[in-house]
Amino acid sequence: MCPAAPRPGVTRELKWVRFGKDLELLDSPGILPMRISDQTAALKLAICDDIGERSYDFADVAAILVQILLRHPAVGSEAFRKRYKIDVDSDCGKLYVSINCSYLK
């Protein structure tokens, strides 16, 4: 419905998009500062691939995402076992990523 890309300049104007009869979304251009001092915000942007690839380490961000998902009540290690057929150490996303995601290195 709206073009998107992991680079600046794709969204150039405001655009309302309707999803069904009860939901509308306003797509707008985003502006990110050159430096993000809030590391939690920077991490969330990295997880969504909204900041430059040179700004973070893929494996570190992936490991943190795994830990966040494992601790989330709606996901947890059981969901990882069911979905991906793997056991995950709930305390160490970095270990999981290093074993199962060698392409991130």
Q: Explain this structure to me?
A:
One of its GO terms (molecular function) is GTPase activity. Keywords: GTP-binding, Nucleotide-binding. This is G domain-containing protein. InterPro entries: GTP-bd_ortho_bundle_sf. The protein is of the alpha+beta class and 105 residues long. The protein has a domain of 63 residues. The chain has four helices and two strands. A two-stranded antiparallel ribbon has the order 1-2. Helix 2 packs across helix 4. It is extended and about 45 Å long.
Short account of what is shown:
The protein is of the alpha+beta class. It contains four helices and two strands; from the N terminus they run E-E-H-H-H-H.
How much is the radius of gyration in Å? Answer: 17 Å
Order of helices and strands: EEHHHH
β-strand number? 2
Mean pLDDT: 78
Number of helices: 4
How much helix is in the residues?
A: 25-40%
Structural class: alpha+beta
Strand content: 5-15%
Question: Main beta sheet, described?
Answer: 2 strands, antiparallel
Unreliable stretches covering 5 or more consecutive residues: none
Distance between the termini: 34 Å
Strand arrangement across the biggest beta sheet: 1-2
Q: Could you say which overall geometry the principal axes of the C-alpha atoms support?
A: extended
GO cellular component, one term: mitochondrion
Keywords: GTP-binding, Nucleotide-binding
Organism: Aegilops tauschii subsp. strangulata (Goatgrass)
GO molecular function, one term: GTP binding
